[in-house]
């Protein structure tokens, strides 16, 4: 996936694309993937980097949503369980089966969760990942050595999926690119182009790196910008009522020994009525999440002190060793693009996570809401509008069974798994030069060859692209990422033919971002 080659396609201003997608997170990538599966010509434009926003800041779960079942959102759970099963088949290198344990402290809870999770199993049908069952107090303690034992009566085990969100986004982008889509990061939409009838017929865009401007034509334009959807809607119709209510979720990352074992912990009811997860992920423990309304959408949201305290306090109620602020290696925050409730004061945990596709008078198509697990179905439902807008025949969707870039039946071991079929090429690159075989950081398995690969093949152009999303060091250990930044910047400068001034600017930019992932005090 080469940025320079894709940029050349913008020079042909007479080309009319079938679909132009604004936004390179899970929603936009789902649209691009489905469109390319139907033989449509597609261009996708992302203002910063792929999955820079919410799509790289999830709980790392591919799940049906146990809590949505409790809320009675059966349709969403059915849909998500089907998508979960297919995603594990289409991207086995980036997804895995993760057992969860709900600790049981009363016999009523045993009955309640056992029955609920049997229904969850049944709803998954043939795509089920494993049977849920009650386990004894002894087995619960054996599998979750650090769980609080006072009053513990046992646990209920169930199965869901786990994934690397940023690398899955990249894999989808590369799959679409491999199939002929034009995929671009650091390309901002500056305006909509309309015909004499007020119908959207194209976009004015700017390359954020070299500041060149382009205009493109498209039969259908999709606004898939997540929490920033209102900005594009304002471009379309100034003064439009706001549709999006940003809701912030944070996660704390700490050492795995706070939980022990390979199973994840699910706390089904916190004091604010949400669920809390403690999930082993890439050698660390990810604990979250919160649900806090925020007034403004930000590209780099920050965790609030009260959110950090809430997660630490809730986790302490279930673990033998209470984690403190000093134990947190990184904290990251993401913003969910919830549909703005009609009634003031509606609780965000009660707002449906189902997606919506909205058609404006100008024929601009906006995709809002949804969740990572259903990204493909969201894309399919959006592309279905093409027939109505372009008044052309539309082939049936073929994205449900599309194998994603890197798919292999022989999953590499260790951290190489995330590269799938590309792992061998990166390992060979590491053997070609001693410098590329060096570790990026002594506490992480990643090699310098992965940086070169990210620049050459994965459209990484900034230090943050590498340390946050190509490898996940920033959200696993923010200090380790800061310590590695200069090493990364220097090898990237060689690849991108940049000077010392570029290196220093990148280091300053990365420091500002990385400090937001550290807990103060």
TrEMBL record:
The answer to keyword Oxidoreductase applying to this record is: yes
Q: Which residues form the Alpha-glycerophosphate oxidase C-terminal domain?
A: 366-501
Q: Which GO terms describe its molecular function?
A: glycerol-3-phosphate dehydrogenase (quinone) activity
Which InterPro entries does this chain map to? Answer: DAO_C, DAO_C_sf, FAD-dep_OxRdtase, FAD/NAD-bd_sf, G3P_DH_FAD-dep
- GO BP annotation list: glycerol metabolic process; glycerol-3-phosphate catabolic process
Keywords from UniProt, A to Z, are: FAD, Flavoprotein, Glycerol metabolism, Oxidoreductase
Domain of life, per UniProt, equals Bacteria
Cofactor annotation: FAD
Where would I find the FAD dependent oxidoreductase domain in this sequence? 18-341
Protein family: Belongs to the FAD-dependent glycerol-3-phosphate dehydrogenase family.
Q: What is this protein called?
A: Glycerol-3-phosphate dehydrogenase
Q: What is the phylogenetic placement of the source species in the record?
A: Bacteria, Pseudomonadati, Bacteroidota, Cytophagia, Cytophagales
